[in-house]
């Protein structure tokens, strides 16, 4: 397919590489052009403006947050996009902005698909992302070959694009809550002289298998918070988005409120760039042991 | 081995059956004798007093809570127990009582091992319990054949018996927090018209495999809270014990505080005998949707 | 003085009436002109555009929230305002917007004073507001006669305008927390058959005198949440602003998080237009008694 | 009247002094006899056993907590007390123990009145305590002259003794919440460079008059946490009792849960003997500013 791609951070760059490998023609644009140049060697065509990327069969975007997205994808860009174009937004953005984008695209005869991904850069590089897609079924059908090139599984979960964002935020909320809870459990165990390592062995071989408890739990057990797989600062952003999405439908999320407070405390102590497993340090500090 | 067993509830009864199958000789005692009679057919010897059970090579106890334990296992009982006897307490009790029991046994030349188990009655019946043991290594060595008869794995995690109780409470705290978080996520998703079932498919096939998210999440998705696998009332008891164990070492557990509040709310609405997945109903009610 | 006034809601209208009584000349503008007409009879000059109000010796504004303010007071308006004009913003807005406004005014040679008020419409009508002012001292000096006409006391608390907003938000946070706590205490007392009325008699005649405990406590005791003195919906807005102001300086406010969750729960049950004493109903509902 | 008095701490000692001044005959007993001797000079008769104090027209007790009370006032003591004796318990104890005591007294033909007091030692010395009494009206009538000698006002709030304890715990919960909130507000203000002192001036001259906001707020503003008027350790005890009383009637108290967590954090940092205004230090530490 002939596609555009906007936003070439770690995640976006890895996706483009896999799209090229699968034989797609990709026009790429990035705010800082160096990242685009690096992909040129792999066959990407570097374009000078977002508008040039916003054409062809489809355009994918992977921008950092609401503000970054709004700086690039504005009314003027949409106005000049070819009718019938499918725009697939793979970033984790607010539910409110997703609703706005869906409406703005529809008004101009454009298709808008929200397809946030689960998985970190190493998973993206291996083309094993989990894709959570929502939007009109025929639009998703058209871009499914692209999803197949970058992910191992696409879940279709609704006709309203923002529903994919809600699901992504709910998943990240679950993740953040599990890490906060691991941190608190670690503080409890430490106070009684029980090794967190032993605890993890017990729970990960039984009730809590899988990467989250072993991975983040291990970082807490070793008090090793760098390099960050998922930064505390970004974890806070996602929890904030989950709280806002919940407030929009009058839903309290008391555990999310607690996690937000703990992440703010991490930032207050200069640990915003650490992995958000640093919640273990926050819990230990409160107990006077960090 | 020649052992005694005190406390023949669902869990205790299943353990005794497996101990008998493995060829051990078991004297059993229960507050209400009917349950003991049922095991007589399988080869257990029913005794009339706890003191008769408290003899032989070892005695195992599985009583409901601190109060039930203290009613049966008092100073008089310990005073008359044969020196060198190993008492293995498999119940989930408070850390404070575990410390007291350890001291009382030691003063009288008795061995005290704390060995709480992970697993529900069906797991106990299959002799697949996970056993978390703490106490003197030589005492645990002596009763290891008993653990092998009822569980699939014994974790030894410390020389102080109460450390096993701390670990058990920490595990149950993790469990309760995961369920609360599932409940809150469900309310968030429901507010935006996303199916909890779809969400579970996504997370259990990726970041959150294992029985907890699938099992309790499934109950929340189906709003099916009976029959209870783990009652809300008992979940509250364990969270309360975790909070007390944490307070004893000056450790705040803010997520546990939230879960405690939610479980109290469940009880206030008459749902104490429901499975503690009923936390999903609590979260939905707060959002005006239950 | 020759002044403009923008925003003629209940609060703004009462202020203008008092400014006229004190002999000032007031040009008034409101989005919906009916409210302006009502003040014409009292001597106000109704103008057709915000720009006409934004002139003379000073302009006061009292708009509902950040969005309402931004719709009216934009770059174009400020660009055409006469240099040296003092703009006094008396509304409760976000700290972030206050910082932005201060910068935008300074860049154009305008003075910006933040002067949020404590007190409800009846207090405004009696010219007894408490004014919390921040900004350049000389700018505040110039508008002090205006403050004297509408309030009984002006507190000057800093040179940075946003500091006044922080203080206002902190005060409203204290207020909301007191009401939440009254609600929870009421639920506790009710559970034990103790009358909230008796409790209020005891605490308001001793440790907690003053209007907050007697007033909101009385509404909770009588379960009378309408008419609203301070709507739950607006209380939630202010708590949200306090949380945002705190997050901007990496400060967790766990009690504010709890109050936010409770107010969301009130809105979820259709009580957003009730007085925020309806937090008492939320607390009672959680306890299964509402 | 001819009365006994058990428990001669700071509060109890001050009460006895005032009872003697008012002309009553007082037999005093204390665990450590030195304190009793000091009162002998003022006319008290020192007795050697609690039983000797538990006689005459009435006996008042003021023991530190549930454990201290249970060590002294047990079944044997009540068994030998003269029928018809009125026992007035002025200490802050758990609601559960109050219920138990009420039953135990009634079974033996003794009257039990709960009469916890509001006020610290200086208020007790000035005979200006606020007394919250519950129990049978005729029993309270008989001891009213004693209340008049030590307090300025007696509130009668119910026929069940434990209701007075509930009210006292609710009042202390309100107090602790106000202090936590002051601490959080202080952290918010500090982050924006606004003086806590200025904030207190504004709120105490308007919405929050009275001793709590001025007193504890002042300690937070000055970061002066010693000497303690009300120790953090004892504040935690009272919040714990409030939470237990609420749980007994299935009532969540989310703000109390937050305050409990903060007080535990204070203890973890060695500040248990500080005034519980040290909650201000906890809030500042979380924000990285203490």
UniProtKB/TrEMBL annotation, chains A, B, C, D:
Q: Does the keyword NAD apply?
A: yes
Query: What GO molecular function annotations does the UniProt record carry, in alphabetical order?
Result: NAD binding; NADP binding; oxidoreductase activity
Record: active site? 168
Q: Known InterPro entries for this protein?
A: 3-OH-isobutyrate_DH-rel_CS, 6-PGluconate_DH-like_C_sf, 6PGD_dom2, 6PGDH_NADP-bd, HIBADH-like_NADP-bd, HIBADH-related, HIBADH-related_NP60_sf, NAD(P)-bd_dom_sf
Q: Which intervals hold domain 3-hydroxyisobutyrate dehydrogenase-like NAD-binding?
A: 164-278
- Single Gene Ontology BP term? organic acid catabolic process
Q: Which domain of life is it from?
A: Bacteria
Ranges of residues in domain 6-phosphogluconate dehydrogenase NADP-binding: 2-156
Task: Return the PANTHER family for the record.
Answer: CYTOKINE-LIKE NUCLEAR FACTOR N-PAC, OXIDOREDUCTASE GLYR1-RELATED
Q: What is this protein's name? A: NAD(P)-dependent oxidoreductase
Organism of derivation: Paraburkholderia bannensis
């Amino acid at each position: 397919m002939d596609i555009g791609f906007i936003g070439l951070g770690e995640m976006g760059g890895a996706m483009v590489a896999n799209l090229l490998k699968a034989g797609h023609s990709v026009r790429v644009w990035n705010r800082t052009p160096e990242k685009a140049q690096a992909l040129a060697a792999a066959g990407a065509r570097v374009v000078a403006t977002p508008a040039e990327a916003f054409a062809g069969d489809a355009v994918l975007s992977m921008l950092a947050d609401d503000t970054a997205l709004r700086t690039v994808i504005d009314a003027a860009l949409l106005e000049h996009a070819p009718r019938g174009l499918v725009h697939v937004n793979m970033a984790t953005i607010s539910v409110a902005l997703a609703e706005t984008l869906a409406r703005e695209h529809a008004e101009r005869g454009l298709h808008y698909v929200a397809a946030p991904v689960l998985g970190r850069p190493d998973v993206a590089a291996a083309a094993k992302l989990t894709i959570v897609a929502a939007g009109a079924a025929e639009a998703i059908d058209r871009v499914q070959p692209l999803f197949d090139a970058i992910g191992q599984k696409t879940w279709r979960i609704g006709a309203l694009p923002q529903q994919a964002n809600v699901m992504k935020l709910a998943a990240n909320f679950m993740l953040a809550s599990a890490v906060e809870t691991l941190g608190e459990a670690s503080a409890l165990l430490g106070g009684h002289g029980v090794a967190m390592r032993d605890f993890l062995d017990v729970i990960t071989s039984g009730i809590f298998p899988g990467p989250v408890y072993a991975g983040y739990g291990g970082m807490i057990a070793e008090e090793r918070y760098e390099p960050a797989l998922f930064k505390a600062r970004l974890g806070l952003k996602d929890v904030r988005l989950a709280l806002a999405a919940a407030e929009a439908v009058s839903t309290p999320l008391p555990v999310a409120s607690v996690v937000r407070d703990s992440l703010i405390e991490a930032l207050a102590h200069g640990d915003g760039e650490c992995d958000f497993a640093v919640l273990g340090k926050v819990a230990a500090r409160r107990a006077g042991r960090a």
